[in-house]
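Quick one, tokens below. Sequence please?
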């Protein structure tokens, strides 16, 4: 960017002397980076700067779009373990189920996640969007959240685009080792339940104990349902006895859970060679943590316009999360050319034991349910990218392959009825199940961006860019369910009262006692294949046609072909599937930035984007969500959502890393996807449909400031205060008018009145009206001290729609207060950092409930406790 006129510069300099602090330095023009580097890389140095003041601009000054950033400094200060936890500190972002990020109240389906500009597949059965708790902060350098759309990105952009930037090859060699140990007041040395499993459970890898037995695999390979109609009693006995028993069935109480721990190694080096430089970076880490939850799970009934508990359980669950991750990157650079190869591996396993007991009105008895589960998620991503400059022309390209999987073997449940003072299981009225399910999701993607820079006299250089992208996402999912039933005769009383591993032992799996029967859903309800192909081409111009008015206009053409095909696991015709979603869109985007004062600017943005249904939402397959204990089933009659987005933001940058911003936003959604209740007989399921329309609007505010206090005492020693706060107000309304129709699953494609399923004016699911974050800290660079108090408030939000005639289920996340302390020191000629973290200091509980007429039902309520950890990092 060249200087503005001398007249204007002199005038503003004179005014600033009277009214404002010293003004900011301003960036020179440079061609915008490719999506592989985000709209602007938070750590990217500025090639050329025309100094208008003594302040260095924040990265947000340099981007053409409305964006937020998490820098390496932010990640360290906050001390969060994963990208998901760190992003909840960003203005307008909230965290759902501990892993999905909602931007401005829009669900995860409206927010895309990229890694170095390339899309990612998901291992989650219910989502096509990758859960961000998979990504430990140890493999990230920064995170960019872009809130206004630009044409170079994929069209699936509703709430925002989250681009995770991995660590890159360093300029100087380094090696660091980090370790931590911790616990939780509701978990460590408290009552818990668990089960043996295998020898490698601590690292999250199964040792073979959960492998599907070959007898069962061979029977499945026949293509016949495993029951008495296809197999002899002797064959069913042999298959049933091959199931792993005691290590996976028998739950045990304990009060001696090991503390949480983590280990991380990071190193990198750059080699100067005759032709350029070659570098590498490597990261390896393991993490293991426990969480015990004890509380209430209730279901409600409405009588006389008052809701009260109909089913009332006390529950206790213990979850062990084991994470292994690794990153290996290589980079070569010569002249104006750069090539990077990045490989990322993440393995995240959740092992859970859960028990609940209480009065179940539907069963007409006091019952107990026991569950043991194992969910093994894995992601591997490899990306090759390049950047080349030929004078005014820049070429950026990228290609990536990513694969994820979710393996859930031996997902087990069993119900007992309380008779007198003992629990009995008769394998008829009270049943048991063993499930095997797997999801595999693969993604290939590629992109090419070309930018041409035209020098402009007296204003910012003009950059004309164009590009193409392609993405192929394939998924296959399958779930099998089996039960041991008493089919011929009632189980003897002495067998009904046996411990579970004795009850399901070989002695009882025999004709006349327990018989194996497959209860897997038919007609495509248990398996499906999903495919999504997206091709895009765009053109964009970033220019200052009028002095001090930066304009970025773009147009994207995107063609998408999405289809979900149910598979029949048994002999018979191929089940019918919904018509594929084949759509093409022209998606315009525009952002105007008015630099009306030296360190102030105003941005206005408008765009059209889309949101596609997720594979699972289209698949007519029933699935139990272990996080909520709710049944879900897809709806093959869903269609794409179209959005119109309008944003405005005022920005004032008054110091290095210091700023004040305030903005407004508005979104109109045509056919947004909402979850509703589908009642199939006595079974209550959550399913999906397209609401007629919705709108979302609100305001955002953010402030970040350092304070050097005039304290001369030795004890203060040059400390400075740090303060950051942000607040988001958002309001959403689902819109239903007379004559509007929807296409619910229960209607089998026949239109129904929308007002029968959706209430006009209801808030969008997952949207909180109020979000706020506050960070207060003391920092001393000389002493290497950092103390930060962090508070996050999330207002009430709808987590699920209620059954017909019942209020919606509401979650109240409340306020979470954390304390993070870092102290650096030197020893043995090396630098060390000691850390102390305390999470949820005021012990906010998890609350999910329904309220009506003065009555309340606690759908899911438990104590979160306070977590503490100690860490030590060594740098060599």
């Amino acid at each position: 960017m060249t200087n503005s006129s001398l007249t204007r510069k002199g005038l503003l300099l004179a005014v600033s002397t009277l009214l404002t602090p010293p003004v900011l330095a301003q960036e020179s023009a440079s061609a915008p980076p490719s999506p592989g580097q985000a709209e602007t890389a938070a750590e990217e140095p500025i090639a050329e700067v025309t100094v208008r003041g003594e302040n260095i601009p924040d990265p947000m000054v340099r981007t053409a779009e409305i964006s937020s950033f998490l820098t390496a400094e932010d990640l360290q200060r906050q001390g969060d373990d994963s990208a998901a936890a760190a992003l909840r500190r960003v203005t307008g972002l909230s965290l759902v189920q501990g892993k999905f990020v909602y931007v401005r109240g829009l669900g995860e389906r409206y927010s895309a996640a990229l890694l170095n500009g390339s899309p990612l597949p998901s291992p989650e059965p219910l989502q096509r969007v990758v859960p961000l708790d998979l990504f430990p902060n140890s493999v990230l350098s920064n995170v960019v959240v872009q809130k206004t759309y630009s044409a170079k990105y994929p069209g699936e952009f509703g709430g925002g685009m989250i681009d995770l930037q991995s660590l890159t090859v360093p300029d100087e060699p380094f090696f660091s080792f980090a370790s931590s140990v911790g616990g939780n007041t509701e978990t460590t040395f408290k009552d818990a339940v668990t089960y043996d499993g295998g020898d490698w459970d601590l690292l999250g890898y199964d040792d073979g104990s959960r492998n599907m037995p070959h007898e069962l695999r061979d029977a499945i390979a026949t293509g016949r349902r495993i029951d008495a109609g296809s197999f002899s009693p002797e064959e069913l006995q042999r298959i049933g006895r091959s199931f792993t028993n005691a290590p996976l069935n028998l739950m045990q109480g304990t009060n001696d859970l090991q503390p949480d721990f983590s280990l991380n190694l990071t190193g990198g080096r750059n080699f100067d060679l005759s032709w350029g430089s070659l570098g590498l970076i490597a990261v390896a880490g393991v993490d293991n943590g426990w969480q015990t939850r004890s509380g209430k799970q209730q279901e409600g009934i409405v009588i006389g316009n008052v809701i009260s508990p109909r089913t009332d359980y006390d529950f206790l669950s213990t979850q062990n999360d084991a994470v292994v991750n690794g990153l290996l990157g290589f980079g070569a650079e010569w002249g104006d050319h750069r090539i990077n190869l990045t490989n990322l591996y993440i393995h995240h396993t959740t092992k859970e034991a859960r028990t609940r007991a209480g009065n179940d009105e539907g069963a007409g008895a006091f019952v107990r349910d026991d569950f043991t589960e194992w969910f093994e998620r894995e992601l591997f991503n490899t990306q090759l990218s390049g950047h080349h400059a030929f004078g005014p022309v820049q070429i950026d390209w990228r290609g990536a392959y990513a694969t994820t999987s979710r393996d859930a073997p031996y997902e087990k449940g069993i119900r007992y009825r309380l008779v007198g003072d003992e629990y009995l299981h008769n394998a008829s009225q009270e049943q048991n199940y063993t499930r095997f399910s797997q999801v595999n999701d693969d993604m290939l993607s590629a992109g090419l961006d070309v930018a041409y820079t035209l020098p402009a006299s007296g204003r910012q250089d003009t950059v004309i860019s164009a590009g193409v992208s392609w993405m192929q996402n394939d998924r296959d999912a399958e779930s099998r369910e089996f039960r041991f039933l008493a089919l011929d005769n009632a189980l003897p009383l002495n067998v009904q009262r046996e411990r579970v591993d004795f009850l399901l032992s070989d002695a009882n799996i025999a004709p006349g006692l327990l018989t194996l029967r497959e209860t897997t859903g038919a007609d495509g309800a248990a398996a499906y294949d999903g495919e999504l192909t997206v091709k895009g081409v765009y053109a964009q111009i970033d220019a200052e046609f009028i002095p001090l008015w930066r304009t970025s206009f773009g147009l994207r053409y995107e063609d998408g072909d999405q289809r979900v095909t149910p598979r029949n696991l048994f002999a018979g015709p191929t089940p019918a599937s919904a018509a594929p979603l084949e759509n093409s869109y022209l998606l315009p985007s525009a952002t105007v930035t008015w630099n009306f004062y030296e360190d102030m600017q105003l941005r206005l943005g408008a765009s059209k984007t889309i949101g596609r249904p997720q594979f699972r939402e289209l698949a007519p397959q029933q699935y139990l969500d272990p996080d909520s204990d709710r049944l879900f089933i897809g709806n093959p009659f869903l269609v794409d959502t179209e959005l119109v987005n309008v944003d405005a933001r005022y920005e004032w940058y008054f110091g290095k890393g210091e700023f004040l911003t305030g903005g407004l936003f508005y979104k109109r959604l045509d056919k947004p996807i909402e979850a509703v209740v589908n009642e199939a007989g006595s079974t209550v399921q959550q399913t999906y449909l397209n609401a007629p329309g919705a709108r979302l609007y609100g305001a955002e505010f953010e402030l970040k400031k350092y304070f050097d206090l005039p304290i001369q005492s030795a004890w203060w020693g040059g400390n400075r205060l740090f303060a950051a706060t942000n607040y988001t107000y958002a309001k959403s309304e689902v819109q239903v008018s007379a004559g509007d129709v929807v296409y619910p699953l229960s209607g089998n494609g026949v239109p129904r009145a929308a007002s029968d399923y959706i209430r006009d004016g209801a808030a969008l699911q997952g949207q909180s009206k109020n979000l706020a974050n506050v960070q207060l800290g003391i920092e001393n660079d000389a002493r290497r001290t950092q103390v930060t108090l962090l508070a996050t408030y999330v207002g009430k939000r709808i987590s699920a729609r209620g059954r017909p005639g019942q209020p919606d289920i509401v979650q109240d996340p409340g306020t979470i207060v954390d304390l993070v302390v870092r102290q650096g020191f030197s020893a043995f000629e090396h630098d060390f950092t000691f850390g102390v973290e305390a999470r949820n200091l005021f012990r906010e509980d998890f609350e999910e409930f329904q309220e009506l007429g003065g009555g309340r039902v606690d759908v899911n309520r438990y104590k979160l406790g306070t977590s503490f950890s100690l860490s030590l990092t060594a740098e060599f």
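The radius of gyration is 29 Å. The chain is about 5% helix and 55% strand.
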